[in-house]
Description:
The chain is α/β, with parallel strands linked by helices. The chain has eight helices and 15 strands. Helix content is about 35%, strand content about 20%. The protein has a seven-stranded parallel β-sheet, with helices on both faces.
Amino acid sequence: MLIAGCGDVGTQLGVRLSTQGAQVFGLRRTINQLPACIHGIAADMTDPATLGTLPACDWLFYTAAAKSRDPDVYRRIYVDGLKHVLDALPAPPRHLFLTSSSGVYAQSEHEWVDEQSVTEPDSESGRILLASEQLALNSGIPATVVRFSGIYGPGRDHLQRLVMSGIAAPHEPLHYSNRIHSADCAGVLEHLLQLALQGQTLKPLYLASDDAPTPIHEVMEWLATELGVEIHERQPVRRGGSKRCSSRRLRASGYRFHYPDFRSGYTELLRKA
């Protein structure tokens, strides 16, 4: 297994796979934080000159995450980086898994969206993500794209910090939020790999989000109650449109969310804080 862009989600995935006996390589700029069970490859996916020693792999996971929403950064990470890695591999993998985002949807009237929904992103970052998806799906390698909604989990505490400062989203205009715990992100990728290993044919696209799209003000007010904080300011805190993500296809494949709603995920996070 080669996990290119082996950050939070990639590392969790790598640990899971290594415990099952897989040989896992993790590619990232700095490898000192990778656990010993993942063989680190220190390289920059945006610089082809650093990718000369990639191993042949059966399964490629491209789980890169841009640190900035700047379009140039997005393009280098999600399009150029993917192309560089594919070009540098000594042989094509059996399957490519690419992580993308629900940011490719621009729906804003609280509609349900799924894999068949129109994708007409109104942001440059969303258009770049779509280009990355098309690059993967047209690469000539069997490929599966997984669109994650808003990822939360350990180390991803932006919402809690806002609430701790007394800020919550307004009730109007209503804005649905969608989320998935980082552990479920790794779980989804592991699940799809297991299906492939069992000889099942994967769909080219899966939308991965927990089972409970919720207005963002409700999430923040619940957090405030759990944290014992009084809300004294209302300000919009979400980007993009208001939609509700459906993971029906993923659930039909047999996946069951470890954290099926925000309460189950945040309760554990707050207990460990």
